[in-house]
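ping. complex inputs:
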Amino acid sequence: MTDIQIGGAKRARRAYSFEEVAIAPSRRTRDPQEVSTAWTIDAYRFELPFIAAPMDSIVSPTTAHTLSGLGMLAALNLEGVWGRYADPSALLHEIKQLSDADVTARMQEIYSAPVDLDLVSQRVSEMKQAGVTVAVAVSPQRTADLAPRAAAAGADIIVIRGTTVSAEHVSGNGEPLNLKEFIHQLDVPVIVGGCATYQAALHLMRTGAAGVLVGFGGGSSMTTSDVLGVRVPMASAVADVAAARRDYLDESGGRYVHVIADGSMGQSGDIVRAFACGADAAMLGSVLARATDAPGGGAHWGAEAWHAHLPRGQRNMLTQVGTFAEVLNGPSTHAAGAMNIAGALRKAMATTGYSDLKEFQRVEMVVTA
Amino acid sequence: MTDIQIGGAKRARRAYSFEEVAIAPSRRTRDPQEVSTAWTIDAYRFELPFIAAPMDSIVSPTTAHTLSGLGMLAALNLEGVWGRYADPSALLHEIKQLSDADVTARMQEIYSAPVDLDLVSQRVSEMKQAGVTVAVAVSPQRTADLAPRAAAAGADIIVIRGTTVSAEHVSGNGEPLNLKEFIHQLDVPVIVGGCATYQAALHLMRTGAAGVLVGFGGGSSMTTSDVLGVRVPMASAVADVAAARRDYLDESGGRYVHVIADGSMGQSGDIVRAFACGADAAMLGSVLARATDAPGGGAHWGAEAWHAHLPRGQRNMLTQVGTFAEVLNGPSTHAAGAMNIAGALRKAMATTGYSDLKEFQRVEMVVTA
Amino acid sequence: MTDIQIGGAKRARRAYSFEEVAIAPSRRTRDPQEVSTAWTIDAYRFELPFIAAPMDSIVSPTTAHTLSGLGMLAALNLEGVWGRYADPSALLHEIKQLSDADVTARMQEIYSAPVDLDLVSQRVSEMKQAGVTVAVAVSPQRTADLAPRAAAAGADIIVIRGTTVSAEHVSGNGEPLNLKEFIHQLDVPVIVGGCATYQAALHLMRTGAAGVLVGFGGGSSMTTSDVLGVRVPMASAVADVAAARRDYLDESGGRYVHVIADGSMGQSGDIVRAFACGADAAMLGSVLARATDAPGGGAHWGAEAWHAHLPRGQRNMLTQVGTFAEVLNGPSTHAAGAMNIAGALRKAMATTGYSDLKEFQRVEMVVTA
Amino acid sequence: MTDIQIGGAKRARRAYSFEEVAIAPSRRTRDPQEVSTAWTIDAYRFELPFIAAPMDSIVSPTTAHTLSGLGMLAALNLEGVWGRYADPSALLHEIKQLSDADVTARMQEIYSAPVDLDLVSQRVSEMKQAGVTVAVAVSPQRTADLAPRAAAAGADIIVIRGTTVSAEHVSGNGEPLNLKEFIHQLDVPVIVGGCATYQAALHLMRTGAAGVLVGFGGGSSMTTSDVLGVRVPMASAVADVAAARRDYLDESGGRYVHVIADGSMGQSGDIVRAFACGADAAMLGSVLARATDAPGGGAHWGAEAWHAHLPRGQRNMLTQVGTFAEVLNGPSTHAAGAMNIAGALRKAMATTGYSDLKEFQRVEMVVTA
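pong. complex structure:
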């Protein structure tokens, strides 16, 4: 990235968002049917390289099952309503109905109920029994507490997800989580993030994580930039972390840590750009919240939106476009990149002549205004 | 173009749109009457360097005749309603009337009717008999099937047009079209595209095409960028392909392949910029769809809008401004570049002191915010 | 300006608009009362460095007198309504009342009446007798015809103004105007333009002009960019032409040709930036059309708006803010740079520590997003 | 900053606004509770590094007390309504009620009442007696007159604040203020500004000021750019002035002059960026005017808005979000950076691993579109 002098001695790199880049076909073309979007992490193989974000508006035990059946991974937030309430249906419905003025305060109440540890174990067991590849998400603060319990109940993949997660957390308030040691002891693969720079990602890779999440929540429902001044445009962030993956692969003698773009992918074109910049998989939020069978019923929010002291996100109302199946695999009846996102990815790969996602990371790109 | 590091090892070129550039008069001026906009391709000479895009909202057998009489070429889409229905008038009217919510799904139905091969031949013959220089457009998928039939019926020029067309298509699903061989066997000049890079254009030029279309559909009715993440801003794309034209001219020992800008030219000022960047001709969409005698009746859509699985375009409603004759040659009663587009091109050339389009490709330009 | 490769072999310079630049105080400050905005061209001295643009919405014989009394120059368009009609009051009122849809066509009619040569002489004589420093404007096409007549009737300054005026006009249609010879023979100082590049300005300076107009009409009422694709952002254009002034001063052994910014100065801050970029004076349009005593009565249009075949401008409706006196010298009761524009210029000069306009051309500037 | 050629011989530096930059976490993280936002200037220590701007919509004697109790400094404008009227409550209420069309003219009237010197002394004494660390603001024009009086009455800190304040003011109209001598004689620390460049700041530092204000009023209620053409984007301005602080520290053998960002910080994220660019403290306007206990009652305006001849600001109406206590320390029930701004600053520091504000000035940043 270009190094810029903001003023005086302060320098910064110019970073690019998905909106500022595009792919540029320039070689052969290929039939979309002959393109593979398969993604393999650890022992798990998925037809679609997507992970449903651990947001109550998208992933419930039921929709984790649906999405699993459609060939992708879904992460249940253990600190969401399904980890706090035996039956949260009425609450989900209420969140959708609340006015913009009231919704933040009410969500702060709803999510102030304690996480129920037995319920956490129960959710995992039930999904496991239903045949789902079970992924669950926890915050860094609750990782030590919840993750082993989820693993014991049968979780296949643990996602540790916060606005920023670092390999070295300093705390005088009790012993901080030693990520490296924790991941080493845990028997299941761990995906951890967000991060957005080469250095931060490299340190996370060294903890033994199977994948890192790239992004600080730049998506449709977050206001991290407004509140904290924190923002790293995603195209640059994904490309930087992909460089860390390559260097760590060499440093570690062959450990390939998956780069998972997380946020700012509101249209299928953005998802395509994430892979073009070097992502191995994409964690999806608003795209899936548009499904008619999503638990949010058209409302969409993340954990930032109900933070007790400093909410950094909003409940957004989205237009619903079709079922999860139609959103993922079409057919599409919308022109704006909200349906058949897997088909769009396949078409983009075919148009540029690539046959798998790893190759597609080399596609030619342009920067636009 | 400037080479930019997006991040890590990912690099991209900065590309410019027509909106970001402008021409800058800096020398002599000239009388507009002494300027020629004539364009010659193969054996055909036109007073106006425009091609009506093969879209059902613009080109019917009737309007092809009208536009021919006004001095320009018009391409009938053989896979549009005129190749599928004996009398599509009611359907054209219906498309205009449909609500935004319903129009995509209904267009998918309308265009699911099969292409009628006899009808294809008949359309060509009728236009030919009416004295029109007949240009017809086919998709790459149907080229082998439809193009020879059209040529046999008397078509003068074949346009092979897809979102991206490459000289080397890989397919396990039957024998892919060998463009070079196909063009060699066909007895009529072929225009092929879109493409948007030097490399892709050079390969297309080597197939023996008489002209290449520059653009992936960045126009008013397309959402390719949203859906596929594909976009190459047009000013840079045209300038790059013009460089391929020059290099191929040398490589081939004198074959001049025409560079035809296709898309993103919604106002006469954009058309002027296309020629300034190096175009030999311009394929026009929305500008012509604004004519009161256009078949769309103010509605405008392309083939992308009715794709069965992954529509990448919309039906747009445009304000009608005057007849084809007034849109092309004025007089204009509108200030926004929608009428007298040939007069605007002539005036721009005169203002900068150039007398023909080839010279005008050297005009001084600026990049703006 | 930075040289940019648009693509292939096409290069262009990055040019900046007034909106993209600003002045940055960095030294001493000064009392606004101790700042002079006086401007002298040829034998004429004005307290204010402004010229009212030759537009019927601003300059009538009456308002030329008013503005003269306020210390500035005003140019009457001899090809406007005052050169075509004995009493145009009703027409001016009608233009204001017309709907957006009808106004262009009706203005084309109004301005199709012939210019009345006797009326032209009479207008000049009357203003002269009223004690006004008389400036009149003509188009390049009518210069040979109208300018000598205006000079004979007593005009003090002739303005030759077109979208683009070059020192070398090529025409097979009769003898083109030889600017150099014409200016040499005429007994009054000539201001000529628009132009927007170093080269074009240098050639105009060599014709013997006393001043050059910088700009192609980028102002609030013009659509030259949309229609012709022509645009040169004003900050760069003024700075370039100022460089031509300096070089011509040397080349000519001391002839100082005035650089007059023309267009794109809708707020007093823009006017300040024009001087900061190197202008000696500013030709004002919309700022003056906001005056309650302007002939347009809140409507504003230029000659481009009534072009018979290719109108490149619109009639705009503006909010009126106060009398000419208040617009120029305040006091202001508006915060947006529409009133007390001379006071704003003085304050900007005082804030940066300069005491006259020539010194102020050296003020420090920044480029912003 | 990058040096750019606007055109000809005119060069300018590219300057960046807070909106164009962001902080990028890339190292360790930290518990927000272990972060200190304390700020010490001269003998005064504050828990929060904020100064309430001397605007009648924010600071009254009463709210100065409130804000002092919350751990921050507030500056009362001695030339505002509290220095002109014994009881201005009705006027404050009236300003809030006025229509946009009438408000500027009426404010010009209200503020044309003379400053009452006895009242000035009385306001200071009363605040002092209430236990407040008393900061008062004066304009450069009234400094010699009002500042010694305020100091005599017990003011702890004097703020000299104008659009631009220079160390060298040229005036033929009486003796101009000699800042250096004045500050030397005065017994209390002086904060002075605005300024926005390295050079201007360095000169102000040499006058003996304890702090300099960075900014010309780029905030929500000002139109300095529109009216005067003056603008220096804040991220660059703060970084430049921070460089002057460092160089002056060396030059002076250890005098640390505080850099105080003033303006353009409408959300907590902007405040974070100001510190990241090098600020020691932030002077806050609209953020505090959103408090339910602010004197403006939701209306917000500065001294520029009531300038007698050339107003350069507006009265803005803002949405009220909570008490001063909630705006500063939360808890927040809004997602857009308007509440818990101290918490947001702490969280941003924790997320990037810094424990105090001085360290945080080194945080990694990016430039975005």
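Chain D has one domain: 23-367.
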